[in-house]
Design goal:
Layout (H helix, E strand, L loop, with lengths): L1 H27 L31 H14 L7 H7 L3 H10 L3 H4 L18 E8 L4 E6 L3 H4 L4 E7 L1 E2 L4 E6 L12 E7 L5 E6 L10 E4 L16 E10 L12 E5 L4 H6 L4 E5 L5 E9 L3 E3 L4 E3 L14 E5 L9 H4 L4 E7 L2 E6 L5 H9 L10
Antiparallel strand pairs: 1-2, 1-17, 2-3, 3-5, 4-5, 5-6, 6-7, 7-9, 8-9, 9-10, 10-12, 11-12, 12-15, 13-14, 15-16, 16-17
Helix pairs in contact: 2-4
Length: 382
């Protein structure tokens, strides 16, 4: 590849200059045998000889240029693994890669695991799809348009498993496809429903960045310290509440849902004043709260069904399909274009295949948890 050739030339030039400098230094420096110690052929020292990798001594300017080119050229998976490989070379590479790679809000790309809890882009949504396995009650989120269009380029992002209990249903969410244990390092949080399936709560295993929220206290279930990872906190932080409107009269029609995000990072509060309301806390102060609602579909007389414009991303009619927009009051004087801007949309495209498109100010973890609530049974809401 041309980039590999240019990289090889840069490295060859740097190495040749270093070797010439070393040769000149050795020629000028007098050799003093008294200041040198020669080790025997069979040394009794038990410490291994550690040689520092030449990759760690690259000039920062050259390293920034290399990582910048890799980031610009490899914008799709699996080719974007090269960016992750750059961060795994050594400590110096990892620090520079961390500074060079932008957030999903800035570039619209998912690179590192921490990107799954960072807000999406503002201009265009990140397009994903969810694959459901009925036999195991598992759900897997992939980055891509669809299985048919993305193929091998589909990148696995998150996994979840539905666990039914007597009075509730849990959806543990993990970065692993088959490991949903709380003691795992890949565990991120969970979605929990009430008995009627009308309310769902999104819990994060770690405190969201730039946010101060109270936890639900320590877990009632006692877990042995030997089975718990040192990084795993024993608290669940409630970050969102999803409410489905009760259908008391059992009328036929689309679902009505509201999603209240209890945490908004500091940048979102300052730059998105039209997306949040304020609620009064226990101390009398006001706290920002992001409120989303599902867009009301319109009745199509010819098709005799409720319709929404998914712009080609949804092809199969289902009661699970929805679009979330900001819940704006008339007193806020928000333009109509902002009110109709889609923040999250979810819909069916085939048997056990669903699309999920999200954007700012939601993250992939939050969007996936909201979509999981649509899979649970809701006897009091339908």
């Amino acid at each position: 590849m041309p980039f590999n050739c240019s990289l090889r030339e840069c490295l060859t030039g740097e190495n040749s200059r270093d070797e010439k400098g070393k040769q000149q230094t050795e020629q000028k420096r007098p050799i003093d045998l008294r200041s040198h110690h020669f080790a025997p052929e069979e040394s009794s020292c038990s410490y291994p000889l550690v040689q520092q990798s030449p990759w760690a001594n690259m000039p920062p300017e050259l390293l920034n240029d290399i990582i910048g080119r890799v980031d610009a050229n490899e914008t799709t998976w699996p080719a974007r693994r090269a960016v992750v490989f750059c961060a795994a070379v050594c400590k110096s590479w990892r620090e520079i890669t961390r500074e060079a790679i932008r957030t999903p809000e800035e570039c619209g790309l998912l690179t590192f695991p921490k990107s799954l809890k960072q807000t999406g882009p503002r201009d265009s949504p990140i397009q994903c799809f969810i694959r459901r396995e009925r036999a195991t009650s598992t759900f897997r989120l992939y980055l891509g348009l669809s299985p048919a269009l993305s193929g091998d380029a589909s990148k696995f992002l998150l996994g979840a498993k539905r666990i039914r209990k007597a009075t509730k249903t849990d959806f543990p969410i993990s970065m692993a496809a088959d490991d949903f244990s709380r003691s795992s390092n890949s565990y991120l949080g969970k979605l929990r429903s009430n008995f009627f399936g009308s309310k769902f709560f999104i819990h994060d295993c770690q405190t969201p960045s730039n946010s101060e929220i109270p936890s639900n206290g320590r877990s009632r279930k006692r877990i042995s310290t030997k089975k718990v990872s040192p990084r795993l906190p024993l608290c669940n932080y409630k970050v969102a509440t999803i409410s489905y409107e009760l259908n008391v009269l059992r009328t036929r029609g689309p679902r009505r849902m509201n999603c209240t995000m209890h945490t908004i990072p500091v940048p979102e509060i300052s730059t998105s004043t039209s997306f949040h309301k304020s609620k009064e806390s226990g101390g009398g102060a006001t706290e920002p709260v992001l409120v989303l609602r599902n867009k009301t579909p319109r009745w199509h007389e010819q098709l005799q069904c409720w319709c929404l414009n998914f712009r080609g991303r949804v092809t199969v009619a289902s009661v699970k399909n929805f679009q979330l927009v900001a819940a704006v009051e008339s007193s806020q004087n928000v333009p109509v274009s902002e009110q109709e801007k889609m923040i999250l949309q979810f819909g069916k495209i085939g048997k056990d295949i669903f699309t999920m498109d999200y954007r700012y100010p939601l993250s992939a973890f939050q969007a996936f948890a909201i979509c999981l609530s649509s899979f649970d049974t809701k006897p009091a809401c339908e």
